[in-house]
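Fig. S4 source data, part A: sequence.
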Amino acid sequence: MAQRAGVSRSSVSFALNNRPGLAAGTKARILAAAEELGWQPSRPARALSLGKAGALGLVLTREPDLIGADPFYPAFTAGIEAVLSEVGDGLVLHIASPDRERAVYERLAADRRVDGVLLTDLRVDDPRPALTTSLGLPTVVVGRAEWAEGHCAVELDDEPAYVAAVRALAAAGHRRIAHVEGPREFRHAGRRRLAWEHTMTELGLPRGPLRPGGFTAEGGAHATRELLALGEPPTAIVYGNDLAATAGLAVAHELGVPVPGRLSVVGYDDTPLAQYTHPPLASARADARGWGEAAARALHTVIADGSAPDVVLPPAAFLPRASIGPAPAGPTP
């Protein structure tokens, strides 16, 4: 390429990496030669030249099978990839056990494999925000600003959807409204549980039974069996996500408990399958793909500028569908 353009190799490097110091005519001649030769940039070489990895990092500590089944992450990562494709960057995804999580972040920082990281599934007493600060890794927290410990936060509030769901069930006459919660260590699961608790209290209703569900189909099914076996079972169940709620629907059908005739069911995430269950599942729409896009853009800003303002996305919206109905008039089975 240098020979064709009649310049030195260093001039070619300056032109292709868009560095100052070349005359406009010389740069134009080099770029024209590159186009004629069908040259494509080597991302590793360019990253080394610019001191950038050209990748963002995402470390997940859930079980691989659970990540594949959870509908949130495919949509969230699709949003990240949509932004990265615009600039030609990549996503480095690690699935780590809790005891190896710290080592993964340390290796990412030491090897300069990523330019920054996204933190999801913020936990109670989570060590990661402080860890990435100590490692000098640009960071965006996917969650509320008070969890971010000084990092940029990209927030989508799930509380209004839970409040709306409980209020809708209460307006339909339900008094025994149960909750199947996500993992207790996750802050967003705790926030959903508290939204259910506080709304029940505000409405003057006794807090319904609470069961763990773990955001999984197996957990949702097990919790539903326990709830429906109670001497006074709930007439409505609000689940931590659609996966657990869909499993709960299946258990109700298996046990001969009509939905919504004897039991109303509400999920969260508004997965594509939700409107095709029988009956269609009431849920809450949170724009997971848009959340991923916003998080990736914010992290690019942090990497480039050193910081970025917090981002507050529109909150999740409650979507009433046919899986909820009036409370049964007579005793439940």
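Fig. S4 source data, part B ends here. The mean pLDDT is 89.
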